[in-house]
Amino acid sequence: MRSRNPLEIILLIIIILLLSCEVRVNSLRDNSVKEKMVLDLSGKWKFRLGDDISWKEKNIDDSNWEKIYVPSPWENQGFQGYNGYAWYRASFKLSKDLSDNQLYLILGYVDDVDQTFINGKLIGLAGGFPPNYRTAYDAFRKYYIPKEYLNKDGENIIAVRVYDNELDGGIISGKIGLYISGDVIEPDINLSGIWDFRTGDDSLFLKEKIDDIKTTKLMVPAHWDIQGYQDYDGFAWYKKSFVVPKKYEGENMILLLGKIDDIDQTFVNGVLVGSTGNWNFKDIPKEFNKYDEYKIVRAYSVPAKILKPGAENTVVVRVYDGYRDGGIYEGPVGLITVDNYLKKNRGIQSN
Q1: Which pLDDT tens digit goes with each residue over 164-219?
Q2: What is the CATH architecture of 36-180?
Q3: Mean per-residue pLDDT for 35-53?
Q4: What whole-number distance in Å separates Cα of residue 329 and Cα of residue 326?
């Protein structure tokens, strides 16, 4: 066997490194592995340049809109050089065997910013629209669809508002469709959606009314980094007000918060109901990226005596992020009775 010269060895090492990098990138980008596609939504979608928030509504007349293929940059379909706002719309019907499943919409990668609606209801967003523009071209869009937003017996409309700042624009890549996941517990009271948000560490967020505190609105679940707070590490607070229907009076419940990056302390009506991670630190941990709290699914017990059926309640989440992405980033998010939680857990384990 002939010996290899130094140049051949160097070239071989470079090839191996490039192949390993490609495998790693593909594994990072393929975020849909855990889900099963139940409806392929790739193909011709209705499309219109411009921006009108009424285009999110289910019953608008879109009969004269253009049609372009999804996923693919709009530059490849007759709109070369266009930067700005545009909207996509598509319709689907649910088969009876899907109507009771927890569904997710996967849009893959959108260049640069999007807001996505089902039947006029916001289910997800990434990036920041002007004047606070922030690209999210590299953020994978996987949006949880609350069951109450869906029409089980007829047509459903997906509307996607997109802003492109430069180069390619639109819904550009990915396996676009509706997906189900067998290991997701659907809450009885859905709390995903828009929450009040504030960076820094201010316990005034625990007050019932926060009119005197400057806040922004963020989508939950979704990393704050794709919503205008890219590369922010440190403290932040989330707050959501909600009403508990009177039928849950006397019920002990579980608060589902999905996954949080990195650690949290969670309060319901001002009472601490759960915490994940070590909060006994004075300085930022030097090697926070080695911790695994961001992988832990949060499910906190909420005794019946804490809740106020028929009245406004609040959930407040104090978060500390020490490395890379931060915030409440994966669902489901909401309240479920203890009995239903146990039943659905047993159902998942038996599958």
Answers
A1: 999 999 999 999 999 987 667 889 999 988 899 999 998 878 876 666 678 888 88
A2: Sandwich (2.60)
A3: 95
A4: 7
Question: Which amino acid makes up residue 93?
Answer: K
Write out the two tokens for 329.
């980033």
Give the three-state DSSP class for 98.
coil
CA distance 59 to 54: 10
pLDDT at 25: 30
**pTM > 0.70: yes or no:** yes
List all residues 6 or more positions away from 178 whose beta carbon is below 8 Å from its beta carbon: 37, 38, 39, 41, 92, 98, 103, 104, 105, 106, 145
Q: Give the whole-angstrom CA distance, residue 72 versus residue 83.
A: 15
Instruction: Tell me the DSSP string of 282-305.
Output: SS--TTGGG--GGGPEEEEEE-GG
Q: How confident is the model at residue 287 (pLDDT cuts 50, 70, 90)?
A: low
Find, among 12, 223, 270, 25, the residue nearest to 125 by Cα. Answer: 223
CA-CA distance, 284 to 278, in Å (whole number)? 12
Domain with CATH 2.60.120.260 in the chain: 36-180, 189-350
Contact status, residue 73 vs residue 110, Cβ threshold 8 Å? no
- Residues 221-236: b if buried by 16+ CB within 10 A, e if exposed: bbbbbbbbbbeebeeb
Residue 87 has pLDDT above 60, yes or no: yes
Contact 38, 178 (CB under 8 A): yes
Q: What is the CATH number of domain 189-350?
A: 2.60.120.260
User: pLDDT of 144-165, one tens digit each?
Assistant: 888 889 998 899 999 999 999 9
The number of CA neighbours under 13 Å toward the Cβ of 296 is 13
Say how many C-beta atoms besides its own lie within 10 A of residue 216's C-beta.
14
